[in-house]
Amino acid sequence: MTQSLIHLSTASVSLLIRAGKRLPEVVYWGKKLPENQDYDRFFSANHRSVPQARIDTDTALSLCPEHARGLFTAPGLEGSRSGNCWSPEFTLEDVLEQPGSVSFSCRDPDAGLKLIINLTLNQTSHILETQLQVTNEAASPYQLQKLTNTLPLPADARELMYFHGRWTHEFQTDRILLDRGGYAIENRRGRTSHEHFPGIMIGQPGFSETSGEVYGFHLGWSGNHRLHTEAMSDGRRYIQAGELLMPGEIILEAGESYSTPTLFSCYSEKGLNVISKQFHRHVRNQIIQFPQAKKVRPVHLNTWEGIYFDHDPDYILKMVRASAEIGIERFIIDDGWFSGRNDDTTALGDWYIDSRKYPRGLQPVIDCVKEQGMEFGLWFEPEMISPKSALYRNHPQWMLHTEGYEQVKVRNQYVLNLQIPEAFDYVLGRMDEMLSTYDISYIKWDMNRELVQATHNHKAAFHGQVNAYYRLVDAIRDKHPMVEIETCSGGGGRVDYEILKRTHRFWASDCNDALERQLIQRGASYFFPLEITGAHIGARLCHTTGRQHNLAFRGITALFGHMGVELDPACASEEEKAAFANYIALHKSLRELLHTGEYFRCDTVHKETQGCGVIRQDKSEAIVMYCQLGMSEFALAAPLKIPELDDHKTYRVELLESSSSDIYIKQPSPWVEEATEMGGALLKQVGLMMHTLQPESALLIKMTAV
Ligand code: GLA
After folding, report:
1. What are the tens digits of pLDDT across the range 459-481?
2. Which one of 9, 25, 628, 658 has the largest count of C-beta atoms within 10 Å of its C-beta?
3. Are residues 280 and 311 in the same domain?
């Protein structure tokens, strides 16, 4: 096969892949190239030199780097047949090109391995999806250690923005410069995790929301993963993203295959806002499938922080009525409804209604919810088993563990081994019966612990457990296609594009502190659009941080997501209820814009402030939130430059809400007191004059084209 160049492109991005006898190599990925060029001539006269005192031939950084070719990167594929065939060398046999996608079929007959590399560049979202598959074509088993997606990065992509966190503190961001060696994020927690969200941004140093070339990556997988980026000693750079496999976890018998999770990647010429716009568009068009596409996202009331395990149906009826009064549209009973569940030490697995708490079952509550015009949702944690449960007493072997070792508990619970067909069928049967008996249109699907020593059939079984979990969600959706599912894992511990293909919302965090939420929701916004990001107004005294915030700050913050309320409305004062109702009504009035428009973040000069907004695609309307996170260093706030506005439009700028007192202002900028018309280009380039707010407060500003 002669060398040829394959060009995948969209209106803004080009990807050029060189394919010859060897594994294909990306020779360009970035801003759209002009169409009318002779790429073949250009690249054949203009390829890398072979440096002195190294391998005598050119070493391509291919889509699956091979040690056998003398490339000293981390290989794309690692494994062996009991030590043999550990360093394969593939030959490209076939290229299948289709509009927007290409598939390379490669083989090493000596190693008995076939490798397929798939790339698809989405025309609308500009997201590049990559995935690799290896097949064992020989008779002996092949022990796979690693198969990962590899993409090259330009030499100036030197700055990394990565995500980290913990329970109640998800989606935090940080940055480092990488000029030598590698940077790796390894997640061994068996779920997507709070700690190591599988996403990263890599770009020109100093890239911001609105400037700098930057590449965005997200691995769609809800288990162990490894993201690795390296600045090679020869000056080249690359990223690898794939599943992290435990020793012996994947053994391919003759004819068996393993596929990597999909890596979702994109390029922006101008900063992170373009990256998230592309990710959001992809989620909206390709990932999320709502049972009813046109339905608005109903405002939630979730009982957890309101009553915890203390379930009294008579009192819950009061909560239902109070919820309806403030405008709630979906009422969800959280943890505590099933047999013997009075605290977090018992009963996971016993998915029967607790007849002591609910002597007449759930029906009276559901009837009342329906009478009040709301939908009903219920919490499950299907993958778990409490040591104190009937399920555990009857089936101790259903716990996911390693024989002979003591399994650690997390939140007093074990994991149910869904790879045991009887365990899988049991939990599917229990959920199916609940969903068939009652009019339940929403599941809050929780998962409150990590996998430790996950072994099944004497082999490491993280991969198997994650796939069994996907099968369980799929089976529930097959039986109950109209039910919406929230993915929750102690808050935002399990959200990624693979689980979002099966679910419809994620619970961003168990932290309802509005200040923390500002940062958590901003971090999540790089990958996820607002309509799937669960954001609730919590109690005045936040249960997880002990901080207090006024209702306006809590309300404004929760507007920017799929809104809900996480408290007991039945014991709220009339004044509080009126305030909840006010923010719920405001959310409903802005919901269509928030949930279908384009999200953006503002670059702010002072580190203790942040701004974000949503603009309609035709740029006729935008809603902007400006937040003072901490005490301002300065008496004067900097103007807020609002990207994304139309240069040629004039906007009526109106302050809708403020959660701050005026203590720091003697005289505000005139627009604050009276709605004013201003040019889009000026708002973008000069900015809207802010004033210093009290720490932990926010402004809500509406801009309407006139
Ligand atoms: C997890 C969830 C919470 C709540 C509790 C119930 O922590 O994140 O929202 O559902 O479990 O036990």
Report:
1. 999 999 999 999 999 999 999 99
2. 628
3. no
Cα 489 to averaged position of ligand 1 atoms, centre (Å):
8
Task: Give the total residue count for the chain.
Answer: 706
For the stretch 112-152, pLDDT in tens is 999 999 999 999 999 999 999 999 999 999 999 999 999 99
| 490 exposure class (CB count in 10 Å sphere: 0-12, 13-18, 19+) | buried
Global pTM value: 0.98
What pLDDT is stored for residue 648 in this prediction? 98
Task: Provide the pairing of β-strand 384-385 with 414-415.
Answer: antiparallel
Tokens of 676: 């004013």
Coil, strand or helix at 77: strand
Q: What b/e readout covers 271-288, taking b as 16+ CB neighbours within 10 angstroms?
A: bbbbbbbbbbbbbbebbb
pLDDT, the chain, mean = 97
d(CA 351, CA 13): 50
Q: Which of 264, 287, 310 is at the close of a domain?
A: 287
Catalytic annotation, pick one of 108, 334, 335, 510: 510
User: Is 5 within the bounds of a domain?
Assistant: no
11 within a domain of the structure (yes/no): no
The answer on 280 and 317 residing in a single domain is no
Which residues contact residue 425 at a Cβ distance below 8 angstroms, ignoring those fewer than 6 apart? none
Residues with CB under 6 A from ligand 1: 304, 334-335, 379, 446, 448, 488, 490-491, 507, 510
Contacts of 486 (CB under 8 A, 6+ apart): 442, 443, 444, 445, 503, 504, 505, 506, 507, 534
If one counts every other C-beta atom within 10 angstroms of the C-beta of residue 328, the result is: 29
- 179 pLDDT above the threshold of 50: yes
**Mean per-residue pLDDT, 35-55:** 92
432 is known as an active-site residue:
no
Q: Known catalytic residue: 58?
A: no
Based on the fold, state whether residues 383 and 252 are members of the same structural domain: no
Residues 558 and 629 in one domain: no
Q: Same domain for 627 and 586?
A: no
Which residue, 568, 596, 624, sits at the end of a domain? 596
589: CA distance to ligand 1 center in Å?
29
Neighbours of 265 (CB within 10 A): 26
| pLDDT score recorded for residue 602 | 98
For residue 624, count CB atoms less than 10 angstroms from its CB and return exposed for 0-12, middle for 13-18, buried for 19 or more.
buried
Return the residue whose CA atom lies nearest to atom 8 of ligand 1. 490
Same domain flag for 216 and 330:
no
Q: Is residue 135 part of a domain?
A: yes
CA of residue 411 to ligand 1 center, whole Å? 11
State how far the Cα of 602 lies from the Cα of 604, in Å rounded to an integer: 6
Collapsed DSSP state (helix, strand, coil) of residue 700:
strand
Supply the CATH number for residue 268's domain.
2.70.98.60
> Which residue range(s) make up the domain with 421?
300-596
pLDDT band at residue 4 under the 50/70/90 scheme = confident
- How far apart (Å, rounded) are the C-alpha atoms in residues 332 and 15? 46
- Number of domains comprising the chain: 3
Residues 6+ apart with CB under 8 A from 217: 151, 199, 200, 201, 202, 227, 239, 241, 263, 264, 265
Q: 31 lies in a domain?
A: no
